């Protein structure tokens, strides 16, 4: 099994900001960032370009509304240009700049395991076993765990992961990519659902109103976006990343905590606000959905790109 890439929403910079004078935090953080040029090096490996089927394994109980929020996000990734801008598809289009070609994700099978066949306390091996239930050829298998499911490392060191495992495609063994994201609503919203919940460390600024009215699932969207972008740009630990292969900074995890212009540790940046609901967002999706998506590193500008 290939190395697993973990993602934690609260960055080291955010933690550091809690130990400095608030009046000088911004300038010091900017100085620190300037000393660390952000360049994701290409390691000559395979990227997931072309058509890929996304199979979803729902582990535990998700309401129909919660499932529709996440499904609509997948369907928004490659949706034709929407009249309302900016869009989820324009955000996903940044991945096209990682070498030639696009990554088109097509929704495939959905498997419901509401009775929790492997129990409510899972190890990484259980996540891989669940992911293996999806098809393996030209596929990305996504495991979502409900708010009462405990997963090794969840909340302590990760909010989601992506990795690869060996599966069967026809009569041959082949690698398939998988993703796992958990619902942090009751376990650690301050770590994995920021900025929709006050962070457990750092500046205690007021949380934003989630665009779909669900702190846990809207937080899942942020973490899903992070590991999904990492999956297509660094699927087998030989694509685009900075730092050691065991703990790489990838397309979105390199831009942690940035959602709009002017972001700094503890402040997500300038984003759009729905005049009716007061919800914060920066991307339009299908079926009238709105989402808050993290910045993604743009290989053309070598900078974290935001939609607003």
TrEMBL record:
It comes from the Eukaryota. It is found in: Secreted, Extracellular space, Apoplast. Keywords: Apoplast, Secreted, Signal. Belongs to the EXORDIUM family. One of its GO terms (cellular component) is apoplast. It comes from Nelumbo nucifera (Sacred lotus). This is Protein EXORDIUM-like 2. Residues 1-25 form the signal peptide.
